[in-house]
Amino acid sequence: MYNDTITAISTALGEGAIGLVRLSGPNAYEILQQVFFTIKGKTRKSFESHRLYYGYIADPAIPADPLDEVMAVYLASPRTYTREPMAEISCHGGSVPLEKILNLTLRMGARHAEPGEFTLRAFLNGRIDLAQAEAVQDIVRSKTGPALEQALGQLAGKLSQRIGVARQKLLSALAQLEAMIDFPEDDVPFASVSPQLGETLAEIDTLLATADAGQIYRQGIRAAIVGVPNVGKSSLLNALLRNDRAIVTPVAGTTRDLIEETLNVRGIPVVLVDTAGITATEDMVERIGIERSRQAIASADLLLLVLDSSRPLHSGDLELIAAVQSELAIRPTTKAMLVLNKTDLNQGENENYKLESELNQKLPELPRVSISAQTGDRLQELEDALANLALGGQNLAGRSLMITNTRHRRALERAREHLLSAIASDEAGMVADFISIDLRLAMEAMGEITGESVQESLLHEIFSTFCIGK
Questions:
Q1: Does 88 carry a binding-site annotation?
Q2: Considering its fold, how many domains does the chain have in total?
Q3: Is 354 helix (H, G, I), strand (E, B) or coil?
Q4: Which pLDDT tens digit goes with each residue over 216-247?
Q5: For binding Mg(2+), which residues are annotated in this chain's numbering (predicted)?
Q6: Least C-beta-crowded within 10 Å: which of 35, 186, 323, 458?
Q7: Cα separation, 86 vs 287, whole angstroms
Q8: Same domain flag for 238 and 356
Q9: Residue 138 annotated as part of some ligand binding site
């Protein structure tokens, strides 16, 4: 499908110890041969595949003017990432040598690669399937150990194998139906295919049961820390990060803008958003910060409502509780937790009882954790509760396979719908033609995951999100 040679910088932009320029295509060997020179200034007559060579890169028209000292390797097809001839040039990681070497390979006849084009070629040439190709992007973007483990498992083909076995069962059922359709004169006896379809349906349900948690491990969640001024929101952020990220003072209203930091909570990437204390104010800057806080609440997946446990609720707390209740009613998928801070401050039993009583009355459904952001007391309990709430009570960390990709989830859901329809038709005694229509659509939906049935527009959509050079 692709018969030209592409080139790109495959390492991140900016300064680094090493940078990599990669080529793939029929002319990769010839281009490397023309631009690579030994340390004595001579060209190489041949390159042994998969062997590193030390030298420098220069324009063949002016070989005495090196662009950079490099290590280069030629990779013969098919034992390459793309299954095409490839060449990789490792130079110093500054932007100048990388750009110069890239521009030289372009002048020598290569074309600049599109985003994800190396991985696209690996897919089109049959080295990996589409689910494995998407796993490459997930590996690059993984922020926690569990996210990386899931991506590596998908790259190794665990999801593809499960999908392949399930599709094979459907193919067997389809062959049985087509025998009845194509050879009616042979009196092929009718046999229900519902048991076979039911097995595949159960497999799909098993995979879909992991999707919510899988997408959280892959994408993470946004957790907004909300509360009235001076309840310890910024202290809580610093305590969870184990770092003084936010300014903390006894003066109310210190935080006037949103502060975002990513935290690994039991393998879940959690973007913590420290918001300005929500209260009535005439200060214009503070009002802007409060408005941004309200926007952060509206876009958060999880709300940490921080209250001062050393005193009873006051009007500001009650207004904020009402705002959180309203948000939860508007967006039922949003989750919330009460964080009762300042347990290190002495307080009489009557006051404790009064606060708990008020909360039981106003927010009985919300989980709560009592902590001290100042001393760090029960922070681990808060992290456990946060992870448990984010995962809806499921604990799937360490599971060998989860559905982490929204596209895969939607494809499985479509396959499930068609299987239910096929089973209903089968049990209603419908003719084989009707059953086979839904069966084919179910197989097509599952084939979209691995790329066995995929349109070019979908490939463009998927690979356009990749880095250039990957």
A1: yes
A2: 3
A3: helix
A4: 999 889 898 888 888 888 888 888 888 765 44
A5: 234, 255
A6: 186
A7: 57
A8: yes
A9: no
Residue 233, marked binder:
yes
The answer on 380 and 285 residing in a single domain is yes
Q: List Cβ<8 Å contacts ≥24 apart for 39-47.
A: 47/72, 47/73, 47/74
The verdict on residue 149 lying in a domain is: yes
Q: 411 a known binding residue? A: no
Q: Is 404 annotated as a binding residue?
A: no
Residue 72 annotated as binding? no
Q: Which of 367, 359, 248 is nearest to 304 (CA)?
A: 367
**Residue 317 is labelled as binding a ligand:** no
The CATH number of the domain holding residue 108 is 3.30.1360.120
Residues 148 and 72 reside in one and the same domain? no
d(CA 265, CA 187): 62
Which residues form the domain of 428? 136-210+403-463
The annotation status of 235 as a binding-site residue, yes or no, is yes
> Has residue 125 been placed in a domain?
no
Taking alpha carbons only, the member of 24, 90, 29, 33 closest to residue 469 is 24
Q: What angle do CA 315, 319, 325 make, to 5 degrees?
A: 140
Closest by CA to 445, choosing from 434, 458, 433, 430, is: 458
Q: Is 362 annotated as a binding residue?
A: no
